[in-house]
Design brief:
819 residues; eight-stranded mixed β-barrel; binds calcium ion; Alpha-Beta Plaits; binds ligand C2E; five-stranded antiparallel β-sheet; alpha/beta; Beta-Lactamase; transferase
C-alpha cells in the first residue's frame, strides 16, 4: 500500500495537520458521528476525483432508493389508512413524493450538467443538495414512529418497527457519502426513540435497546463502508491516472522518438505493431501484425552480413532470454534497414512465459553516416588515395600475412618522395601545388597493377604496397613510376616539372612490421636521394649504419661549431705565370676529440640536408675574412658556399654584413659555388650573383667540368672564375683528351673574360702543361695542402721562393717539399 493509500485508510490519526485535528475535536455532532473525513485526508489531485466518484455512486443508488421510498410511503398510507389520521398519511405521502421527485430531478440535472466534467464547485453543490434532501427525507420519515407508534395496535407497532428498521438500513444505500447517510439515518433513529418514549409501553424499552444496538451497528458499518468506497474509488482514480500518464508517455515516445515498442506473444507473433515500426520496415501494419521475427529475416540470403547479430537474436528468442541492443539487418521493400533491438521476456499471471516486449530503433541512417565518416577518415581528400591511417592498417595486415607465408618477399613497400615539389609549390602557389598532388595521385592510380595499392602519407610523400610479387616486380614498378611522374604537368595553363625518388623495402626479408618496413623503405629513399634523386634504391643493411653515422654527426657538428672544434685551413692558389701566391681557399677542418678528423666531404652534405650548412657558411665567411686581414693585401681569400646557402634571399646581406664588420675589401673575397646552384632556377641566385659582383666580390665556379651542361651556364650567369676539377688534372698524362677539354675551356673562358684555376695539381709536369695552356693559376699538393692560418704567412713566402720564376719543369717530379 502506498503512503497516500495508508493515509487515506488510517485517516488523519497520524496526520500532520493540527488545525484540522482541533477542528474535528470541536466539530459538530455530525462531524463526530461521521468520524474522520477520509476524503479530506487525500492529496489535492485525488480529492476532487474521489469526491466526484462518491457523489456519483450515491446519486446512482439514490434513484433506486427513491422508488423504494415511494412504495414504502404508499404502503404506510395503505396499512394505516384505517387507524391513523388521513391528513398525516397523505401529507407524509406528499412530502416523500415531493422529496423523491426533487431528488430524481436534481440527479438528472446534475448528470446532464456535469457528467464527466465535475468541478470542485459542482461536486460541492451536488453534495449539499443531496445532504439537504436526505436530511429532509430523514425528517419526514422521523415523524412516522412519533405519530403512528402510540395510537397503533401491537401488530401495527410491529409494522412501524419493521419499516423504521428498513429505513435505517437505507443509510447503506447512500453510504458512499457519509454525511448524506448520517443526515438521513440520524433523524429516523431519533424519531424512533421519541416514538418509543411516547408510547410508555414496557416493550418499548426492549425495542429501544435493540434499536440502539442496530443504530450503532448501522452507523459504524456505514462509516466503514464509506471508507471502503472511498478506497476503491481512490484506487480506480490512481490506476486511471497512471495509465493516462503511461499512455501519454508512450504516445509521446512513439510520436517523437526514432524508437518504437514491440511485443510478441508466447508463439513469437508480433502484437500491437506500431506505425513507426511499420514505417521503418516499409510494410503495412496488418502485414506485420502476427508476423514473426523469422519472417522479417527471411529473404536475406544465406551469406553472413557483417555486424549483423540476427543469429544471436533468434537464439535468445528461442531460449526466452533477454537481449540488449542487438544490431539486425532487415531487407525491406525500401532496401536494407538496420535495426537495434532490445527485449525482455514477460510472464502471465500464472507465471508462464507470455512473450517478449522491447524497444527497437532504426540505425540505418546512423550506420550510413558512420560508414561515410569511416570512409572519409581513411581517405586523403587531395588525391583520393588512402591516407596514412589506412596505410598502417593495410601494411599491418600485409606484414602479418607475409610473415605467415614464409621467407620470400611477398610484400614490397615503395616509399615515394617527390623531388622539387617544394620549389614548384613555392613558385606557383599552394592551390596549384594541391592540384599537382591531385595529378600525381591520378598518375599513380593509372599505373598501379591490381595487386598494388597507393597511399598518400602526407606532404609530398606517397607509399605503394605491392603484394605477392618479388623484388624485381617492385623495381619495375618503381621504374615505371619515376618515368610517369617525370612527365610535365599542366596546372591552370602553367607547366610544372617534378621528379620522384623511391625507396624500396620488402617484408618479411627486410622487416616484419609496418613501422620497421616504413623505416627501412625510408632509409632506401634517403639513399636514392643521396644518389642524386629521380631514382630508386633497395634497402640494404649497410644503409642503417650510414644513416646512424649521419645522425650522430648531425648532432655532434652543432656542438662542435659552438665549442670551437671546427677551424679553417687555407690552401694557396699560385699564379702559373709568376709563381706568386694569389690567394688561399678556406677549407673546413673538424677534428673530433678522441675520434679524429671528419672530412668536409662527409660533413657538408649532412649539413646541407639539415640546413645547418647556412650557419657553417656564415661562420666560415666571418672567420676567413678576419684571418685574411693578416695576409698581404694582394691576396684573396676564397670561401666555399653551399648552394643551399647561396639560394637564400638573405645571402647577399650575410656577405655584406661580414665585409662591413671585418673591414675586408670586397674585391679580396672570392665565393666558390658549384653548378648545382643553377639546377633549381630560383630567382635569388641571379640576384645574389649580381649584387655580390656589383659590390666587388668575385664568384668562382668550383669543380667545373664534373657537373651538367657546364658551358651553357657560363653564358647565363656572370662569374669571374672557373675552377677546373682535379679529375681532369689527375688523368692528364694517361688521357690526352683531358688536356684537349682543358684547352677548350680555356678558349671559352678567355672569350668570356673569365679566369681559370686548375685544381689538384700534384706534379711539376702537370703545372708545366697547364702553364703552357695559359691557365691563370693552380692549386694542389704540388704547392701545399690546406694549412692552419698561423702557417699561411710563412707558407706564402716559401712558395714564392720555391716557385718563382720557373720556366721549365723537371719531368714527372712531385714537389711536396714546399709544404
Ligand atoms: P673543394 O672545394 O673542391 O676543395 C678542394 C678539395 O680538394 C679539398 O678537400 C682539398 O683538400 C682537396 N685537394 C686540394 N689539393 C689537392 C690535390 O692536389 N690532390 C687531391 N687529391 N686533393 C686535393 P677537402 O678539404 O676534403 O674538401 C672537400 C670538399 O669539401 C671541398 O671540395 C668543398 O666542396 C667542401 N668544403 C670544404 N670546406 C668547406 C666549407 O667551408 N664550406 C663548404 N660549403 N664546403 C666546404
Ligand atoms: Ca672549393
Ligand atoms: Ca673543387
Amino acid at each position: 500500500m502506498s503512503r497516500e493509500t495508508s493515509a487515506a485508510a488510517a485517516g488523519p490519526a497520524g496526520g500532520p495537520d493540527p488545525a484540522r485535528r482541533s477542528r474535528r475535536r470541536t466539530g459538530s455532532l455530525l462531524g463526530r458521528l461521521r468520524g474522520p473525513d477520509t476524503v479530506d485526508a487525500l492529496p489535492n489531485r485525488y480529492r476532487l476525483q474521489v469526491r466526484t466518484g462518491l457523489l456519483d455512486e450515491t446519486l446512482k443508488l439514490a434513484t433506486y432508493s427513491a422508488v423504494t421510498h415511494l412504495i414504502i410511503a404508499l404502503a404506510v398510507t395503505y396499512f394505516f389508512w384505517g387507524s391513523a389520521s388521513h391528513t398525516y398519511l397523505l401529507g407524509l405521502l406528499a412530502v416523500v413524493a415531493a422529496l423523491i421527485t426533487a431528488t430524481t430531478y436534481t440527479t438528472w440535472l446534475y448528470w446532464r450538467a456535469y457528467a464527466g466534467t465535475a468541478s470542485e464547485r459542482s461536486v460541492r453543490w451536488g453534495c449539499r443538495i443531496s445532504a439537504g434532501l436526505a436530511f429532509a427525507l430523514g425528517l419526514a420519515w422521523a415523524t412516522m414512529p412519533v405519530v403512528l407508534f402510540t395510537p397503533c395496535s401491537s401488530e401495527e407497532r410491529l409494522l412501524v418497527v419493521a419499516i423504521v428498521a428498513g429505513l435505517i438500513s437505507d443509510a447503506y444505500v447512500v453510504g458512499p457519502l457519509l454525511s448524506v447517510s448520517y443526515l438521513f439515518a440520524v433523524p429516523v433513529i431519533v424519531g424512533s426513540f421519541v416514538g418509543l418514549a411516547r408510547s410508555g409501553e414496557p416493550i418499548a424499552l426492549s425495542i429501544g435497546f435493540l434499536l440502539t444496538v442496530y443504530a450503532v451497528f448501522v452507523v459504524t458499518s456505514v462509516r466503514r463502508m464509506s471508507r471502503l468506497s472511498c478506497q476503491r474509488i481512490l484506487d480506480r482514480v490512481r490506476v486511471e491516472d497512471q495509465s493516462e500518464t503511461i499512455g501519454l508517455l508512450l504516445n509521446a515516445f512513439e510520436a517523437n522518438a526514432s524508437d518504437w515498442l514491440w511485443e510478441t506473444d508466447e508463439t513469437g507473433q508480433f502484437q500491437h505493431v506500431s506505425t513507426r515500426m511499420a514505417d521503418v520496415l516499409a510494410r503495412p501494419v496488418e502485414t506485420l501484425q502476427h508476423a514473426r521475427f523469422q519472417a522479417l529475416l527471411a529473404g536475406r540470403g544465406k551469406a553472413p552480413i557483417e555486424a549483423d547479430q540476427s543469429a544471436d537474436l533468434l537464439e535468445r528468442l528461442r531460449g526466452g532470454t533477454p537481449f540488449h541492443q542487438l544490431l539486425i539487418a532487415v531487407d525491406t521493400p525500401a532496401g536494407r534497414r538496420w535495426l537495434r533491438l532490445s527485449g525482455k521476456p514477460f510472464l502471465d499471471q500464472g507465471g508462464r512465459f507470455a512473450g517478449f516486449r522491447g524497444v527497437g530503433s532504426d540505425m540505418t541512417e546512423a550506420r550510413r553516416t558512420e560508414a561515410h565518416i569511416a570512409f572519409l577518415a581513411t581517405r586523403d581528400p587531395m588525391t583520393g588515395l588512402s591516407n596514412r591511417v589506412m596505410f598502417h592498417a593495410v601494411a599491418s595486415e600485409a606484414c602479418a600475412a607475409a610473415v605467415a607465408q614464409g621467407p620470400a618477399p611477398v610484400v614490397s613497400l615503395l616509399y615515394l618522395d617527390l623531388d622539387g615539389f617544394k620549389t614548384v609549390n613555392d613558385s606557383i602557389g599552394h592551390a596549384a601545388g594541391d592540384a599537382l598532388l591531385g595529378q600525381v595521385g591520378d598518375r599513380l592510380r593509372a599505373l598501379l597493377p591490381a595487386d598494388a595499392q597507393a597511399f598518400r602519407l602526407g606532404g609530398d610523400e606517397f607509399a605503394i604496397l605491392q603484394r605477392g610479387r618479388d623484388a624485381a616486380a617492385a623495381q619495375a614498378l618503381a621504374e615505371a613510376i619515376i618515368g610517369a611522374l617525370r612527365e610535365p604537368y599542366l596546372i591552370d595553363g602553367v607547366r610544372a616539372e617534378i621528379g620522384v625518388s623511391i625507396g624500396i623495402a620488402c617484408a618479411p626479408a627486410d622487416a616484419t612490421d609496418p613501422e620497421d618496413l616504413l623505416r627501412k623503405a625510408d632509409l632506401a629513399l634517403y639513399s636514392a636521394k643521396e644518389a642524386g634523386k629521380g631514382r630508386w634504391r633497395d634497402f640494404d643493411s649497410g644503409l642503417e649504419v650510414r644513416v646512424q653515422r649521419r645522425r650522430e654527426l648531425d648532432e655532434a657538428m652543432r656542438h662542435a661549431l659552438a665549442d670551437g672544434e671546427m677551424t679553417l685551413h687555407y690552401q694557396p692558389l699560385v699564379s702559373l705565370q709568376d709563381g706568386h701566391v694569389v690567394g688561399c681557399e678556406a677549407l673546413l677542418r673538424w677534428t673530433r676529440p678522441g675520434l679524429g678528423p671528419v672530412s668536409p666531404a662527409e660533413l657538408i652534405p649532412i649539413a646541407e640536408g639539415t640546413g645547418f650548412v647556412v650557419t657553417i657558411g656564415r661562420w666560415a665567411l666571418r672567420r676567413a675574412c678576419t684571418e685574411a686581414l693578416t695576409w698581404p693585401a694582394s691576396l684573396r681569400v676564397a670561401v666555399n658556399i653551399s648552394s643551399v646557402h647561396f639560394r637564400r634571399p638573405d645571402f647577399f646581406a650575410d656577405v655584406a654584413a661580414v665585409l662591413a664588420e671585418t673591414g675586408l675589401a670586397a674585391n679580396r673575397l672570392e665565393i666558390e659555388i658549384t653548378e648545382s646552384i643553377f639546377l633549381a632556377n630560383t630567382p635569388h641566385v641571379l640576384d645574389n650573383l649580381r649584387s655580390l659582383r656589383a659590390l666587388g666580390v668575385r664568384i668562382a665556379l668550383d669543380d667545373f667540368g664534373t657537373g651538367y651542361s657546364s658551358l651553357s651556364y657560363l653564358t647565363q650567369f656572370p662569374v669571374d672564375k672557373i675552377k677546373i676539377d682535379r679529375a681532369f688534372v689527375r688523368d692528364l698524362s694517361s688521357r690526352p683528351e683531358c688536356l684537349t677539354v682543358i684547352a677548350a675551356i680555356m678558349v671559352i673562358a678567355r672569350d668570356l673574360g673569365i679566369d681559370v684555376t686548375v685544381e689538384g695539381v700534384e706534379t711539376e709536369q702537370q703545372a708545366e702543361l697547364l702553364r703552357l695552356r695559359r691557365c691563370d693559376s693552380a692549386q694542389g699538393f704540388l704547392y701545399s695542402p690546406a694549412r692552419p692560418p698561423g702557417e699561411i704567412p710563412g707558407l706564402i713566402e716559401r712558395i714564392r721562393i720555391a716557385c718563382a720564376p720557373r720556366t721549365a719543369a723537371p719531368a714527372e717530379q712531385t714537389v711536396r717539399a714546399v709544404a
